[in-house]
């Protein structure tokens, strides 16, 4: 179970900034933001960090193709991602860049420590070399055949076959990606991290790892099968320099996750002068709970490379790794080159950000694949947000406004309070199981009950009756408003901007983003003026 008394660091996998944000990216960021907001509602002290992943060959490759510097590409998309995250209400405490000075420093410090402790060794390897381009071909600069399964593969990953990470020099029949020539092999000295020395420690770590079972199980399988040492240097200019070798940079999967550490440092510096102590408690003394949100395609990096580096350099280990399933579009894999993609910026021109946040967590369980289609989106919005929640809010608020002008007098019913209590318990249980769909379902079930309750009690008949009936009518309205308030508190983490609107329609003057979960059962004040009822959601045509 999630430790109650500790501070929490939530990280979201770093977007690789060589292209625009598409819907597939969001399955990491939206649930991580919901998790953070909900933990805060439950009284946890949470720090939420992320940043742009800026190094590695794909960015250098794009820059060369466009005839600009890698820095230019990185800055362009770094800003783009920040804009999108703001528009979606994804509120990081700090959003950095792996090219920031503090990350260069932290990476070099960690790599130096690995060297001093004897976990790094030199090795001569035969690397793909293009005679025509007169250069070594790291990672994405080369394509060829996977030595394990024989499928066509990229230089660093068998992306179309067995999914294995490929070490430099492993690929067969290499072809230069720049000019298309067959590459040859040339000998070169590189540096290796002794990953194989950490098998038993990694197995212990993984057995105790919280988060989604897919991350743990997938990584355990790898650890039990084989762990090969890991080449941590590359022949590139762009990146974090390897200590005392100006001609080499560290592999991007070394400095990218170290971003979590340096972004924590930057986030804390902005909060307090005494940041160093807080930082040590998180990253050196294991006094906080660290939760990584990632996609299933990077489980290997987060559950094997990363913890091995942390163990070796004596840093705190993550407590949970939460891995989302991938996103497909109309039943087919998301593909930028085939045009099977939904760009978030385009989406936001047409629809409210909160409807997308809602769709992403309500449409399928977090670890399952999520298939986006416009029909599915339309059905979710029209049948759930418009028909259940929007309808409830407009109906009860208009009725209350028309006949009472404020929250009516009356006691809260046992039945209503019990329903709220159940929804709260289900939602809290779901959040700690990283089951965001169940979380939303519990909230919407409460909204559904509120609709049925209002319908069943027929206040529109009662209002026409005598004094006793009118009193009963007020009570029904107050109880329905209370249910609406409870739904609003529960759904704030999912739809922060829409629930802020609803909160003010309920006449609340507190900050919905700051109220705790207990507010669900705090009775609305009779006589509290209500705001102007307004349609919350538009139907998708
Ligand atoms: Zn393969
Ligand atoms: Zn070439």
Structural overview:
- 47% of the residues are buried.
- The mean pLDDT is 96.
- The protein has helices spanning 26-41, 57-66, 70-87, 101-116, 199-207, 213-225, 252-269, 275-283, 299-313, 344-350, 353-362, 374-403, 414-432, 436-457, 459-462, 467-491, 496-505, and strands at 8-12, 46-52, 94-97, 120-130, 135-136, 142-145, 152-154, 172-176, 184-193, 210-211, 230-231, 233-234, 241-242, 245-250, 289-295, 320-324, 327-329, 332-333, 370-372.
- α13 (414-432) runs parallel beside α16 (467-491).
- Strands 3-2-1-15-16-10 form a six-stranded parallel beta sheet, sandwiched between helices. A four-stranded antiparallel beta sheet has the order 5-4-9-11.
- The chain has three domains: 8-114 and 251-350, Rossmann fold, CATH 3.40.50.620; 120-193, Methionyl-trna Synthetase, domain 2 (Beta Complex); 377-521, Isoleucyl-tRNA Synthetase, Domain 1 (Orthogonal Bundle).
- It has 17 helices and 19 strands.
- The chain is elongated and about 95 Å long.
- Helix content is 46%, strand content 16%.
- With 541 residues, the chain is of the alpha/beta class.
- Residues 130, 132-133, 176, 178-179, 181 line the site of one zinc ion (ZN).
- One zinc ion (ZN) binds next to loops.
Report the CATH superfamily of the largest domain.
Answer: HUPs
Strand order of the largest sheet: 3-2-1-15-16-10
Helix content: 40-55%
Query: Looking at CATH, which topology of the largest domain would you report?
Result: Rossmann fold
Percent in strands: 15-25%
Give the helix/strand class: alpha/beta
Total number of domains: 3
Main β-sheet: number of strands, strand sense, barrel status?
A: 6 strands, parallel
Total of helices: 17
- Shape field: elongated
Low-confidence stretches: none
Radius of gyration: 27 Å
Query: What's the CATH C level of the largest domain?
Result: Alpha Beta
What would you say the CATH architecture of the largest domain is?
Answer: 3-Layer(aba) Sandwich
């Amino acid at each position: 179970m999630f430790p109650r008394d500790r501070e929490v660091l939530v990280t979201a996998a770093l977007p690789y900034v060589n292209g625009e944000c598409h819907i597939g990216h969001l399955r990491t960021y939206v649930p991580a933001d919901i998790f953070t907001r909900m933990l805060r509602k439950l009284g946890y002290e949470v720090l939420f960090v992320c940043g742009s992943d800026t190094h590695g060959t794909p960015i250098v490759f794009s820059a060369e193709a466009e005839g600009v510097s890698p820095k230019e590409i990185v800055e362009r998309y770094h800003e783009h991602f920040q804009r999108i995250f703001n528009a979606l209400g994804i509120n990081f405490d700090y959003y950095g860049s792996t090219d920031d000075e503090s990350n260069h420093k932290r990476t070099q410090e960690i790599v130096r420590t690995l060297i001093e402790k004897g976990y790094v060794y030199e090795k001569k390897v035969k690397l793909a070399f293009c005679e025509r381009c007169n250069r070594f071909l790291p990672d994405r600069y080369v394509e060829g055949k996977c030595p394990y399964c024989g499928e066509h593969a990229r230089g660093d990953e068998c992306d179309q076959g067995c999914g294995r990470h490929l070490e430099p020099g492993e690929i067969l029949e290499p072809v230069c990606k720049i000019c298309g020539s067959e590459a040859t092999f040339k000998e070169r000295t590189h540096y290796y991290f002794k990953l194989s020395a950490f098998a038993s420690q990694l197995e212990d770590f993984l057995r105790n790892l919280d988060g989604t079972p897919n991350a743990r199980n997938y990584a355990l399988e790898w650890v039990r099968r084989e762990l090969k040492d890991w080449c941590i240097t590359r022949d590139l200019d762009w990146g974090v320099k390897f200590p005392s070798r100006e001609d080499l940079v560290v592999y991007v999967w070394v400095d990218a996750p170290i971003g979590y550490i340096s972004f924590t440092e930057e986030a804390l510096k902005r909060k307090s002068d005494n940041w160093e102590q807080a930082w040590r408690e998180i990253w050196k003394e294991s006094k906080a709970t660290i939760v990584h949100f990632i996609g299933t395609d990077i489980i290997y990096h987060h559950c094997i490379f990363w913890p091995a580096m942390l163990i070796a350099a004596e840093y705190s280990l993550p407590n949970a790794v939460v891995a989302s399933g991938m996103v497909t579009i109309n039943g087919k894999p998301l593909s930028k080159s085939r045009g099977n993609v939904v760009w978030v910026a385009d989406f936001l021109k047409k629809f409210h950000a909160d409807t997308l946040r809602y769709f992403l967590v309500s449409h399928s369980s977090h670890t399952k694949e999520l298939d986006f289609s416009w029909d599915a989106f339309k059905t979710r919005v029209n049948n759930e947000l418009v028909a259940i929640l929007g309808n409830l809010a407009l109906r009860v608020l208009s009725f209350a406004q028309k006949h009472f002008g404020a929250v009516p007098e009356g006691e809260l019913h046992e039945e209503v309070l019990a329903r709220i209590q159940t929804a709260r318990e289900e939602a809290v249980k779901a959040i700690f199981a990283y089951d965001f769909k169940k979380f939303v379902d519990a909230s919407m079930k409460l909204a559904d009950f509120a609709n049925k309750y209002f319908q069943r009690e027929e206040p529109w008949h009662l209002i026409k009756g005598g004094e006793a009936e009118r009193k009963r009518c007020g009570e029904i309205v107050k109880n329905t408003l209370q249910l609406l308030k409870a739904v609003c508190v529960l759904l704030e983490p999912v739809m922060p901007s829409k629930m802020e609107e609803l909160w003010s329609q309920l006449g609340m003057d507190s900050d919905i983003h700051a109220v705790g979960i207990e507010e669900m059962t705090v009775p609305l004040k009779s006589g509290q003026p209500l705001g102007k009822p307004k349609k919350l959601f538009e139907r998708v045509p």
